[in-house]
Design brief:
Structural class: alpha+beta
Number of strands: 6
Shape: elongated
Length: 160
């Protein structure tokens, strides 16, 4: 018994082209899906902020969280981030984990910012901020959403 198998050259060329385009399509889909997922994470963090019993004071932290979703690509690595830093201050981390700042007294201190703003202080009283977890719970709550969003983006990029 003999079996002859013949492939249509156009089919081979089409499959080869599809396989060459697939990685770029997947990367673009993951990038877009990751940005959507990070926006969802930022929204969950904002909701968690209020659920943790925190109140809006200046609004700077919530504005930073809302405007921070970002996606970076380095080679085959796609990284999504949401930040809770206000300027160079780790305000989100301080609220998340709590902080003790000891009293500072004594000489006049001068702090000059890179934008040439200057702040003078002689010190401050000690203060404590109790932990108000809202970032890690938001991440844990959003884990399924993030995975589903990425999977959907990949599925839409690659037709069956």
């Amino acid at each position: 018994m003999s079996v002859n198998l013949m492939l249509d050259p156009a089919s081979v060329d089409g499959t080869t082209a599809y396989l060459k385009e697939a990685p770029a399509k997947i990367l673009a889909a993951v990038r877009g899906g990751m940005l959507e997922a990070m926006k969802g994470l930022a929204q969950a963090a904002e909701e968690g902020f209020f659920a943790a019993g925190l109140t809006r004071r200046s609004g700077a932290l919530l504005e930073e969280i809302e405007g921070s979703p970002k996606v970076t690509v380095s080679g085959d690595l796609v990284r999504g981030t949401v930040t809770a830093d206000v300027g160079r201050k780790h305000v989100g981390l301080w609220l998340e984990e709590g902080i003790h700042d000891p009293a500072v007294a004594g000489n006049l201190y001068e702090f000059t910012e890179p934008d040439a703003g200057t702040l003078y202080t002689r010190g401050h009283r000690a203060f404590d901020v109790k932990p108000h977890p809202f970032l890690n719970p938001a991440l844990q709550q959003s884990e399924g959403f993030i995975v589903e969003t990425l999977q959907q983006a990949i599925n839409e990029a690659l037709p069956e």
